[in-house]
Structure formats: C-alpha cells, structure tokens
Design goal:
Helices cover 26% and strands 20% of the residues. The longest helix is centred in the C-terminal third of the chain and has 21 residues, at 552-572. Helix 7 packs across helix 20. The N and C termini lie far apart (54 Å). It is α+β, with helices and mostly antiparallel strands. It has 2 domains: 55-366, Distorted Sandwich (Beta-galactosidase, Chain A, domain 5); 370-824, alpha-1,2-mannosidases domains (Glycosyl hydrolase family fold), CATH 1.20.1610. Strands 1-2-4-5-6-7-16-11-10-9-14 form an 11-stranded antiparallel beta sheet. Strands 17-29-30-34-31-32 form a 6-stranded mixed beta sheet, covered by helices on one side. Strand 31 (779-785) and strand 32 form a beta hairpin. InterPro entries: 6-hairpin_glycosidase_sf (IPR008928), GH-type_carb-bd (IPR014718), GH92_a_mannosidase_put (IPR005887), GH92_N (IPR041371), Glyco_hydro_92 (IPR012939), PNGase (IPR050883).
Length: 834
C-alpha cells in the first residue's frame, strides 16, 4: 500500500469512527481495519464496507471510452438518489481531450467532463447533482439538478460560462472522502460539503468558512447533456426550493433518435437556515431579486446543448462564519407531491449522522452477502469495490407510495407481489453477468427487476428495449438482451413475477416481426425494433449486411444467444416444441461462419442478402462488428463451444487460436486494447473468451488467463477498472472471476470454473474452499463437489435450490487432466441435426 493509500485509508477509518461515536457507538481503533477483520483462522472478513474505495475506476483518459467512468457519491444499493459531484473542464484538460471537447466548445456547444460527471483528473466542481448513472460509455445519463455552494457575486449568467470557469470551485483529492453511503469534499472557495442519502432522498451539509456572499445555485436545467424544459421556484418563508427538469438525450450526439425528452424529475429541497434573498437567470439574462426561472438548455442541432441556454436560481443564505446550512432533498419522477412524501417518510426527522449510518448499514448488509477470507487487503479492496459497483443499478424508480411513470408516460402503481419498479437497464452490457449476480444475491430483487422489464415492454407496444433510461426507451446498442435477462432471472431462481406473461410477450417478439423490426428508425445505433430485420432471420437464417441492424454479423451472434436463452425458458415452462425450435435457431451462427474468410483461417463474417460474403473483410478490424473485431467476436458463442471447436477444425486448432488471441508471438500477454487482432477483456465482446478454453480440454489455460486478466487489468488505484464499467457489468465479471466462477450460458445457471483467488468464499448456496489460494497458486489440482471428487470444469444448476460446497486444491503447476476429457467439459447445445 503506498503512502497516499495509507493516508486515505486512515482518514476513512477515522471518519467512520467519528460517525459511530456521533451515533452512540464506540469508535474502532484506526489500525483495526486489516488486523482485526482478517484472522489467520478460517474466518470471513467483516466490516466489509471499510474495504470499498469508490475512487477505484474514476480515472481515465478524457477519451471516455477508455475510462471506468464510475461515480463516487452518496447512495444506497440500487437507490434512486445518487448524490455526488459534477466536475468541470479546465483549459489544461481540454488540451488532453484529443481536441474533441475543444472543437465542440469552439462551435458554442456545451460538453460534460465525463459520463457520470466525475473524472479523477479533474480539479473543479460545478455542482452536486441528485441522479447519475455509473460507468456508462455514452454521455447524457441523468446528472439532474446540480446544486453549487457559491461565494461570489452572480455578475453574469451561468449559461454563458462555457467551461464553468467562474461558476465552479477547485478542490484537491487530499480533502476528499468517498465511502459507501457518504461523500465529502472541501472546496477551494471555503465550503466543506458532506452528502448522504436514502433510497429516494438526499441530505447535504454545506459549511461556509466565510459567511459573506454565501449562496446556493440551483442549476435546474443543467442535466448532463441538456434538457427540454426546467422550472424552479424559491419560497423564502418556507425555506424551500422546488421544481423539475424534463430531460433525456442519452447518447443523443450519436444520432437524432434520442435527442428528445422522455422523463421529468421533480424535487423539493428544504433548507434549515434563513433565505435572505434570491435571484434567477434564463439563457443570457440575470434577474436579481427574482424567485423563479423556467427554460431548458435544449439539445442543440446535433445532441450537444448550445452554450447560452438554460435557467436556474440562487438563494442568498443568512449565515455566520463557520456555520452550516443543511439541505434535505426529496425527488420523484411522478410529481412534486410524491417528492415531498418520499422526503417525509424516508428521512423522518433523522439527523445527518443517522442518515449516513443507515446508508452505510445498507451497504454492509448487501455487500456481506458475499463472504470471503483473505489476508491480501489490496485484493479485498478491489473485490469489494467491484461488488459495490455491481450493486448500483438498476435503480428503484417507484415512490414510497408505489407510483411510477411508465414508458407510455402514464402513472402506474406497483401491484401483486412486486415491491418496487426499477429503471436503468443497460441490457447489452448487464445480461452477461451483472443481473445474474443481482439475482443470486437477492431473488426477490431479481424478480422485481424482471417484472419491471415486462411492465416497460407492456407500456411500449410489446417492445423490450435494450437500453432503458428512467421512463424512456433509448434503443442503444444491439441484440435482444431483455430476452436473455428474463431467462437468466428464472434460471437463477428469481421467478416471483409473471413468468408466463413475460414468456408469451418474448415469444411473440421472437416470431412475429413488428413495424419497428422492419424499419430503419433509429438505426443503426438506436434501432427501435427488438429484433432488427427479424424477417431476414426467418428467411435467410442470419441477419445480412443489408439490414436494419448495427452490423449484421454481430447482430446474428447476439440474436443466437437470445434464441438459446428463450429455448431454455421454454423448456422450464414445459414448452418442448418451442424449446426445440429456438435451440435450432440459436444455431444460426453457423450460417455466418466462413471457413475460407482468409487464406488460412475461418471467421464469423458479414454476409450479403444474396448469400455471398461481404467483400470488405479484415479479421482484425475494430469497425466491422459492434465495438469489436471478427477476431474478438469469434468466441462469443457461449452456448455451443463444442460446435465452435468443430467448425474451427477441432479442439487443438481452437486452443491454438485462443493462444494467439491472448498472446503475441513472443509469448507476452495481450489482454487490453493493443490491437483488434487480440483480446480486449475490458469490453463485452471479449469477456467470454478466456472461458472458451474449457471446450478444448485445456481448462488450465482458462485458469491462467482469468487470473492474468485480473492481475493486469484490475488495480487498487483510481485507474483500476479497464474500460467503462457499464452499470456494473465489468465489475460483476471481476466478482465472479475472483470466486473462480462464471455464468457462461444465456438462460441457464450452470457455472463454469476457474481457480478462486480467495481461501474461502460464500455466495448464495455456494461455499468455496481453496486454502492454497495465492498469486502463485492459480491452477486447480483437484476438486470435490459436496465431498465427491470430480474432474468437471463446471457445475450444474443444483446450487440454486440447495447448498453446494466446492473444495479446491490449488497448485503452482497445472493438472492437465482436470476438465480434459469430453465428459468433464461444460455442455454444449447445438441443433438436433448438427
């Protein structure tokens, strides 16, 4: 641990002690974190929140596709309210941003500093917003209602300050604290900010070193990438600020389809110190003494809001030097009345320390569902931080009274066994392992999320959107991840929802082309159809390059996984005819495998409608498929690894090709953004590939590759997440991989195996013992399942309903017999006529 980490760790423990003291609990000794929580005996670590460092993954180049883009802030697991800082550009950072942001500003457009609003390299804050998404690749994900503690005169409109050079304040990471449920930063303008949150509310303490000119700016219209409308009003007598913002525009700069409004967030903010005056601005005008403002930023003519647009208010505060003003905030996507009710019922007179303690307790409860034993505190920090990031999303979207806004913009109330409606589903990302992790830890929550997706589809003409944001469908990315998600929920035991109704809806979507499937509306990035060019799938047996999809070859692979998951759901429901039909369609990936794609090797290749192969083909091009190359997508056939080995020329040929995918000719590893010829295990198309060795009989290479990926790419540092985290998907990959497990199959809960990096672990009904676990002991020498020795490199779904114990014996050298025989390899599922 370096000196900066030691200092930050001691600060976190000191702050934790202070809050426990304030709540009437005895403080812990500062050095107790590592020594008392990890014992030499077989004890799981305790006080797991103390291992979480929310700043891991916050640093990355200003080319945001290469940053973790995670956001520190005050929130509870899956909370609607995520209270945290919005960073501002400075001139030096504009120079680092490859000219992109500088060019946009020269065109008089406004651009955020980073998706999620936070970047560790930034040094200025422009406000503290109520909502945010973590780890997105696109800009425009919420960032609603930034509130800025300010100490200068408002001499011109904040709307005309393009990089917030005036309407912001500097800060240092030396005066910043981020722990689960709490965020603190000391600003260079003399204001110390502390934030905490409940599910739907937030609380802030703003302590002003100097009382002169103490203000709060409510930048109501300034959602991350603009707003269609906004309104704010100050009631000085009540000490209240209320209003709303209507926004959307997620990824809007990539195409006109999402340059629109699709949600409204209402808020009430209550201050405990007198409001002595107020002012407002709209666009370029400032109105001193005014107590309300209305007007959005718009989305410009290309998805980037114009500089000079927007509205908000400020309030002058009657304070003494060193005094604190406390702000309590309730939000709702339904109404101001609901925002008030959320605030009243969730905070109910609690003081700041009690709200913070409750948030920390919620995280401790959730994170403790995965127990591990290790004496490596750095690995524990990376692991529990990854688990923490895995549990941000989806977000509770319904209010305390059960109301929520549907995708048809009507008000609904949760009913039946559903407890909460959820929103924010980055389907293309999270179907791979994050939703499985959520369901494994909490079947009821998984069931509610599944019902939420069904509700959204029912309110959206039967279309299951692939990337939902608040109350809107965005259509972002490719494939049909919702089908896989629903099948996965059921497989992992989260079946307390209308499974039959969901299946019938998904079956209809898979068999009956809609007007949206046949339309180019929004395509290629925002295709509105759930199954783009479904007619081609049904007639050609693949999606061609002359289709509505975003690259026909990668769309075909995505849909193959979707149909396999639907076949598994059909089988669980006793619909054997459907199961046989859909597993056959899952084999359509073979129709785009060209054995002569290059002079020496076959690849998945784009195909024309007439059956000919697409002329342009470079297996190492990162532009022929969605966010990946043919070399990377070759391995994205999770359900039929044996079938893939067969078309590649056998298991030895498959193993050799995997070797050359993960290593250069000199034997050196290449796992991250070297060339599209090689693996990029920081992004979704490649994250399955290390596990495909299991179908070659060389399971030890999976163990080796997974361990090396974790070692190289996942770090105990601000730049410790490789690529954007995508609402916890990449973090969930790390969580499963750390345990030596992976949910490889769409629609099944079977788990394939690698070697655990912890001596002991527990998750759900699974207990894993690996006493030799270390950085050197990376190979499985032997394994027992419930006391019975086995050479299988996978386990079946039985652990979902009954306790299963896995006992690993790990070694520094591989046992090549483990997982080698065909009968010991994970199953493959191909068409009956294969």
């Amino acid at each position: 641990m370096n000196q900066n980490k030691v200092a930050r760790h001691l600060a976190l423990v000191s702050l934790s002690s202070a809050i426990l003291t304030a709540c009437g609990q005895a403080p812990r000794a500062q050095n107790q974190h590592a020594d008392a929580s990890v014992s030499a005996s077989s004890n799981y670590v305790t006080d797991v929140v103390s291992y979480v460092d929310p700043l891991i993954g916050t640093q990355g180049p200003f080319n945001h596709r290469q940053a973790g883009n995670v956001t520190p802030g005050a929130l509870v697991p899956f909370g609607m309210f995520n209270f945290g800082p919005e960073h501002a550009y400075t001139e030096d950072l504009l120079a680092e941003s490859e000219g992109i942001s500088k060019k946009i500003l020269q065109e008089k457009k406004r651009v955020p500093v980073s998706p999620g609003g936070y970047n560790y390299q930034a040094s200025r804050v422009k406000g503290f917003s109520f909502t945010r998404l973590s780890g997105t690749g696109c800009l425009g994900a919420s960032g609603d209602i930034p509130v800025m503690p300010f100490t200068k005169d408002v001499t011109f409109s904040p709307a005309t300050d393009p990089i917030n050079a005036y309407f912001s304040a500097g800060f240092s990471h030396d005066n910043e604290t981020a722990i689960p449920g709490y965020y603190q930063v000391g600003l260079d303008n003399g204001v110390n900010v502390e934030l905490a949150a409940t599910t739907r509310t937030g609380i802030a303490n703003f302590t002003y070193e100097q009382a002169d000119n103490a203000k709060l700016l409510f930048r109501t219209s300034y959602s991350q990438l603009g707003s269609g409308d906004a309104y704010v009003k100050v009631d000085a007598k009540k000490g209240e600020v209320t209003g709303y913002v209507t926004s959307g525009n997620f990824c809007g700069y990539l195409g006109e389809h999402n340059q629109r409004d699709y949600y409204t967030l209402h808020f009430v903010a209550k201050l405990d110190k007198p409001i002595s005056g107020s002012g407002a601005w709209k666009d370029g005008d400032v109105f001193k003494g005014q107590n309300s403002a209305k007007g959005g930023m718009g989305y410009g003519d290309n998805g980037w809001p114009d500089i000079g647009k927007g509205s908000g208010v400020w309030v002058d505060l009657d304070l003494d030097a060193g005094e604190t003003v406390q702000m309590r905030v309730g939000i709702s996507y339904v109404s101001l009345d609901n925002a008030r009710e959320n605030l009243k019922k969730e905070q109910a007179g609690q003081n700041f320390a009690e709200v913070r303690k409750g948030a920390q307790g919620a995280w401790e409860q959730e994170l403790s569902k995965v127990k591990v034993e290790s004496d490596d505190t750095s690995k524990l920090r990376v692991f529990y931080t990854a688990l923490y990031h895995s549990l941000y999303h989806p977000n509770i979207f319904s209010d305390v009274n059960g109301q929520y806004i549907g995708f048809d913009q009507q008000v609904y109330t949760v009913k039946g066994t559903q407890t909460h409606q959820y929103a924010n589903f980055s389907g293309w990302d999270v179907y791979r392992s994050q939703l499985q992790l959520v369901a494994l830890l909490d079947k009821k929550r998984g069931s509610d999320i599944a019902q939420s997706l069904f509700n959204q589809a029912s309110q959206y003409n039967g279309v299951w959107d692939r990337w939902t944001h608040n109350a809107g469908a965005t259509g972002v990315m490719s494939g049909d991840p919702a089908t896989i998600a629903i099948a996965n929920f059921v497989a992992f035991g989260a079946d307390d929802f209308d499974v039959g109704g969901a299946y019938q809806s998904l079956r209809k979507a898979a068999t009956e082309p809609t007007e949206f499937d046949l339309s180019e509306t929004g395509c290629p990035v925002f295709c509105r159809g759930q199954k783009p060019s479904l007619d081609q799938w049904q007639t050609l047996g693949y999606i061609s390059d002359q289709s509505n999809s975003w690259e026909g070859a990668s769309e075909t692979l995505e849909q193959a996984s979707s149909y396999f998951s639907l076949s598994q759901l059909a089988a669980r429901l006793g619909k054997q005819g459907d199961a046989a039909r859909f597993v056959n369609e899952a084999g359509f990936w073979r129709n785009i495998y060209n054995p002569s794609a290059t002079e020496s090797l076959g690849y998945i290749q784009g195909r024309n409608k007439d059956g000919s192969w697409k002329d342009e083909f470079d297996p190492f091009s990162g532009h022929l498929f969605v966010e990946g190359s043919p070399a990377q997508y070759l391995w994205m056939i999770p359900h039929d690894g044996a079938g893939l080995a067969k078309v590649l020329g056998g298991e030895q040929a498959m193993s050799q090709r995997l070797d050359s995918h993960f290593r250069k000719a000199d034997g050196s590893w290449v796992l991250y953004r070297d060339s599209a010829e090689f693996a990029d295990v920081s992004n979704q198309p490649s994250i399955l590939s290390p596990w495909m060795y299991l179908h070659t009989g060389e399971a030890y290479k999976t163990q080796q590759t997974v361990r090396e990926t974790m070692k190289q790419l996942w770090l105990d540092a601000p730049d410790g997440i490789p690529g954007q985290d995508d609402l916890g998907q990449m973090s969930s990959w790390y969580v499963f991989s750390s345990l030596g497990l992976y949910p490889k199959y769409p629609g099944r809960a079977d788990l394939v195996l690698s070697s655990p990096q912890f001596k002991r672990a527990s998750i759900g009904n699974l207990t894993l013992n690996a006493p030799q676990a270390s950085a050197e002991h990376i190979y499985i020498d032997a394994m027992k399942v419930n006391g019975e020795a086995t050479l299988n490199s996978w386990i079946n779904e039985s652990y979902i309903n009954e306790p299963v114990t896995l006992d690993f014996t790990l070694s520094k050298t591989p046992n090549k017999a483990f997982g080698s025989a065909v009968e010991n390899r994970p199953p493959s599922y191909g068409p009956a006529t294969q």
